Give the backbone structure.
Amino acid sequence: LAGLLQAQALGLQVFHGGTTLRDGRVVTSGGRVLSITAVREDLLEALGEASRGVATIHFQGATYRRDVGQRGLRLLQQPLYVSEGPGTDVPVQMFVCCSWGGWPLQKMSLLLPARCRSELGGFAGFFDLKASGYEDPILVCQTKGLGAKLQMAQVCQRHATLGQDLVALCVNALLAQGAEPLFFLSYFTCGKLDAEVTETIQEGIAEACRSAGCAFLGQEVSELPGSFSTGDLDLAGFVVGAVERGQVPLGLQRAEEEDVLLGLASPGIHGRGIGTVRKVLLVSSLRCSSPAPGSCGDTTLGEALLSPARLYSPSLLPLLRSGHVKAFAPIAEEGLLGGISRVLPEHVSAVLDALSWKIPEIFCWLYKEGNLSAEEMAQTFPCGIGAVLVVQQDLAQHVLGAVRRREDAWLIGKVVAPCHTGGSHIEVENLVEALQLGSPQGPLSAAAGEAQHQPRRNKVKVAVLVSGTGTALSALIAYTKEPGSCAQVVLVISSKAGVEELRNAARAGIPTRVIDHKLYGSRSEFDSTIDRVLQEFAVELVCLSGFRRSLSSPFLRKWKGKVLNASPSLFPLIKDGNAPQEPPQSGFKVTGCTVHFVLEEPGPRAVIHQEPVPVRAEEPEETRLARVREAECRAFPLALQLVASGAVSLAADGRTSWKQ
């Protein structure tokens, strides 16, 4: 190689990847040979210096990329638009100071209109509200995160919609107060930084801020390998808006009987709905890369599930300030029922007609694939409605026409007198019919000739056997009560009387029995009594959670493939059905728990699910054990869902079998 010393003389760092030393000379050894790095005050200068360094180095067959850094330049130079008042927009250059593992990567000067000054540095600045046309403003702020949707994006390796999602959730929440968004900031943290993912999310935020008419001051990026695992990330947004003091706040004009509910379209799934989606995917034969329902193959299931929330600010703000709207509620993060209930006072109820709007096919697929009831769908998902407006009946058509100039919207229901039980109540009529009408056709739909309405599969009846406290019983009960669960805890049996878990079960309305082993002359007699009680309640699966008694061979043979246990270890099981725990002094850097089928001859082949827990240096043993118990509370419900849904079963040879 020639020119290495010249490149270093320019103040550049040269990293060797495919070189070797031969006869005192540096020569190439194939592959990616060198990496030339320049650190300067801004990205444009750094790119120029690195390019000059590359030009000084020569060897036979040398080639190099010329696009490195160009995407970052385009993002940094991207103009954003901030409203200066009615009918005026001012371009703003975005200020970005990205840090990679705590080291600054790039800076660009901030160009702001007269109403903004950035002497504060970093992601801070002055904002002149009067220059924006406000006379006596009140500031409104909102912060949001994406939660479990980030994990789904990582699984699907789809990040392009996350930026709009974050901005839309924040800005739509401001709209509920009639406020105009002014500026936005975000915080992104991860275990190991992926530059492409970071840039993709940042570009999405910048584009969404442009659509919302607010400035994007910047995104703080942090790499925290000690706190986050590789692949884990978190994203939060913060927006500040303003509203004139004299403007009547939305929501304070109380909805009255005969008022009309208008629904605005949005295909997105957020909040608690993501948890149910993950349960459905867990037992589905489809994957995120599978074609989406009704997409004809041009959209994947993952893309459909990651559809972002609609950003309503530009189209709705003038209407919300007109005085024609009594209340506005974004419901993307909540189910249909929970979102609408927030705009209804206690003395009224509401009736919706699900046939009056278009339910996206992804919700119809979730309804069928997840074996969900109509009530669970309405409680968990927005079912294609992203926001609701409450208006007077005589203004309904006028407001609907104004909204439809920018958004898909429908008259979806009306406010009525309260139900006889008292309190606010929301009824969704024709939801089953609407979900069936929208059921996707093609490869994901039922076979031709199948009846349109399929009865819901009955939940698998589960008994939990305990001996004391510190079990996963509460986690199992909570999980089975959630939408999408394929199991139902119908019985709790304890080998000891008076334990807290019996009281927990009773509070949840679950029958309990105490079968004290000390009252029986033999283990087989004790097991026979348990078997008789299980049959009395028509139990189909048994979960051992902190159950301290060994079950006999006849019992295990009869219930083969139907008894689940959690062991506090990732080791293969040993003869007594448990597993040795890994002490910190053993040198292992990971422990965890294993959920498995209980067999006469236990072994690693019967494992259903494992949850690893990293071992931390100098961590007290009681803290480590507490984290393993937390892992068990996550792993046991998931394993139960896999078995109850039929996704996992025990084969005749004692191996775990997964449904294809």
The chain has a mean pLDDT of 81. The radius of gyration is 30 Å. Residues 621-644 form the longest helix (24 residues). Residues 218 and 315 are 25 Å apart (CA to CA).
